[in-house]
Amino acid sequence: MTKAVLFDLDGTLLDVDMEYFLPHYLKRLAAHFAGLVEPETFVPGLLASTQAMIENLDPDVTNKEAFYQHFCSWMSHPVEKINPLIHDFYQNIFPQLEHLVRRYDHTPEVMAKAKELGYSLVLATNPIFPLEAIYHRMSWAGLNKEDFALITSYESMHFSKPHPQYYLEIAEKIDTAPQDCLMIGNDVDDDIAAAAKAGMKTFLVENLVVNKSGCKSQADFCGRVEDIPAFLEKLKGE
Fold first, then answer.
1. What DSSP state is assigned to residue 114?
2. E-strand stretches of 55-106
3. Please, are residues 160 and 142 in contact by the beta-carbon 8 Å criterion?
4. Most buried of the four, 40, 65, 103, 219, by CB within 10 Å?
5. Chain center to CA of 27
6. Buried b / exposed e across 133-165, counting CB within 10 Å, b at 16+?
7. What is the C-alpha to C-alpha distance for residues 230 and 127, in angstroms, rounded to an integer?
8. What is the DSSP code (8-state) at residue 179?
9. What is the rounded CA–CA span in Å between residue 131 and residue 178?
10. Which residues are CB-neighbours of 59 under 8 A, at least 6 positions away?
11. 238 pLDDT exceeds 80?
């Protein structure tokens, strides 16, 4: 019996092509840090720190801690100097990127139906961003943070996609067995394969499929964003 529904954000509840969005994001973030490090150095350094965070599998180290351990090693500046810049960026600059994304018309209907059916809801966006940044992206999608039992961010999580440990940590946090969870996402590797390895049921959103590995999706179900409300209702009746 499905008790909890996990939703990816980018490409699932929010219409955004990350291959288009990320270069703009990185350019603005590098410019914001130009007083400390040259943009030509900042971008590859940031990507390396992000990869170090993704590869972290230490259950005692949060994603944020893993990121900062690597980030501060090459930035040569103390956390006390870096933190205000990061906060200022996500408070004042990041919201200016909203024009790069679009809302899915059916996202409000999806959320209304999921709440009506009584599922425990999780925003299972890859926790490699601060919660502050995730709140902005949620607002772009028209989502209310109060609707979710858990929103995964780099402050609270110890694993990230595409590791099945990420999904197992979610299940533990919401006190729900993995087999009673459904993961809905548009990424064949990060959302579908990884959640399946953790024992969860999966639904591939086909509006904007991401398939980095080129492997055939083994999702239990598939459809478009507009198909999700009817699917959830049918699932509840089974």
1. H
2. 102-103
3. no
4. 219
5. 21
6. bbbbbbebbebeeeebebbbbbeebbbbbbbbb
7. 29
8. G
9. 24
10. 158, 159, 165
11. no
Q: How many CA atoms lie within 13 A of 149 on its CB side?
A: 19
- Residue 60: HSE in the Cβ half-sphere, 13 Å Cα cutoff: 0
Structure tokens at 136: 């902005």
> Where is pLDDT greater, at 75 or 43?
43
β-bridge pairing 102-103 and 14-15: antiparallel
pTM greater than 0.90: yes
Distance CA(96)–CA(21), nearest Å, equals 12
For residue 201, the cross-strand partners are 182
> Where would I find the H helices in 161-209?
164-173, 194-197
For 159-191, the pLDDT digits (tens) are 999 999 999 999 999 999 999 999 999 999 999
H or E element at residue 204? strand 201-205
CA distance 180 to 162: 20
- 68, pLDDT greater than 80: yes
Contact of 194 with 167, CB cutoff 8 Å: yes
pLDDT at position 76 is 82
Nearest-angstrom CA–CA distance, 67 and 154: 9
Locate tokens 């090693």: which residue? 73
In terms of phi and psi (left: phi > 0; alpha: psi -120 to 50; beta: otherwise), the region of 78 is beta
Give yes or no for residue 98 having a pLDDT over 80. yes
How much is the pLDDT for 124? 98
**Strand ranges, E, within the chain:** 4-7, 14-15, 102-103, 120-123, 150-151, 181-185, 201-205, 221-223
Q: Is the pLDDT of residue 237 over 80?
A: no
pLDDT digits (tens, 9 = 90+) for 8-49: 999 999 999 989 999 999 999 999 999 999 999 999 999 999
